[in-house]
From TrEMBL:
This is ABC1 atypical kinase-like domain-containing protein. The keyword Cell inner membrane applies. Keywords: Cell inner membrane, Cell membrane, Membrane, Transmembrane, Transmembrane helix, Ubiquinone biosynthesis. PANTHER family: CHAPERONE-ACTIVITY OF BC1 COMPLEX CABC1 -RELATED (PTHR10566), PROTEIN ACTIVITY OF BC1 COMPLEX KINASE 7, CHLOROPLASTIC (PTHR10566:SF113). The chain crosses the membrane at residues 497-517. Belongs to the protein kinase superfamily. ADCK protein kinase family. Residues 93-342 form the ABC1 atypical kinase-like domain. Pfam families: ABC1.
Amino acid sequence: MIGALVNLLRGAHVGFVLAREGALALADPTDMPPHLRLALRLGRMLERPGLGAGAARLSTALTRLGPSYVKFGQFLATRPDIVGMSAALDLEKLQDRVPPFPQGTAIRVVEAAFGKSIRELFVSFSEPVAAASIAQVHEAVVMDPDGTQRQLAVKVMRPGVRERFQRDLQVMRFMAGVVHALSPQAERLRPREVVEILARSVTMEMDFRLEAAAASELAQNTADDADFRVPRPEWELTARDVLSAEWIDGTRLHSRDEIVAAGHDPQAVGRSVIQSFLRQAIRDGFFHADMHQGNLFVDAQGRLVAVDFGIMGRLGAKERRFLAEILLGFIMRDYRRVAQVHFDAGYVPAHHSVEDFAQAIRAIGEPIHQRRADEISMAKVLTLLFDITALFDMSTRTELVMLQKTMVVVEGVARSLDPRLDMWTTAEPVVRTWITRNLGPVGRIESGAEALRTIADVVADVPDLALRLKRVLVRLDEAGTGDAHRLERFARNERRWAVWQTLALWAIAIGALVMAFR
């Protein structure tokens, strides 16, 4: 009870800051039930005077709320289906930068992680060169057994950060539960699931061994790619709170002029950005989901180098085929094929018409083919696509939304290097190669062999499954009427929880009003 009260007060503070900074202006009241429209109207009364227009209000509010909410905002930047495309693009600019903690503290974290003094581990260990909410980076030098010295980037966890994130995540879970209970329209957006995905993402980010593993897997997948590479993790100097990896000397993708001055072709680099991302997503099913300019370099050989592997995306075989088929369908203007792929994958409910969906897809595709490459915005295309998914009752697929948002960011990076880049022409070789390989004769033979192995495994498991089913039926028979009583108690508890959540929402609104007029 005390914990719920604490979360209620913290939730009221969050609501107050969002209202005060004008972030509630982003909410669309059109489809809200009356009680939520009233709560929104009350919240809008708290806005500070003189606020500017636009989505920057949300990023300002999240920055005020602290590092956990900055991280949440960066995560929401991958979910334009929830916050809208304009807000998502604004949140992409959130700066996860905070003052560094003292070098002495970082040294103590490193020494505790490995049980050795800093002098035993490194020849030199610099002052922090970059700092964020979770960790900061130091430049270090290590000596190999043969006497060779190498530069490393050493990422050190910020002390106390896990406890802070866990506390703030409890508040986010509470608020997501309230939204889920009080807004039926929120079911399609799965607010509680979004918070849990954030929780898993942050938990993985806070174990640097997992980030090193992600870098290692991506490096293995892309080992034969001539235009892309990943810095090698230094496993012996990596622990839960410390990540050491190869130091990258290269040119950041922030400035086209700097890339030209370094002797590189910006158009070729732009193509590499698009094609590297698509190879990772379609070919490997494991992609870097945070490919903004700050995480990309060009090395002396002209290869694209990615860093920071805290946010990664995965696609299963079905999703990879779905993506490839959709991209090829748009390229070939075969909208019936694009629509059918959605139905075959089960993303559009069967009660809708394939022809109607194809007509809606055509409304997206035809304007693309009637404009020059430099006039086509992937962001606008995806905004239309999200509108259509709502119209045809498509449930949000988190992995596909993250993929779509990453495509927008990647396109933006590539266009900053080559304003006339044709996204579709650049994507076609990667898409066609994958489809030829996986949906052609060789791919079909491999799929058939995999299906036979699956059938054989199922047949082998039939006796065990039958035994388990028998045990379940016996237990149900023994339970008798006891289950009915338990179900009735469960229903009563659920009704009680819904009432408490309604009261909680009003308490947050009233608490924000009280705080405003102190």
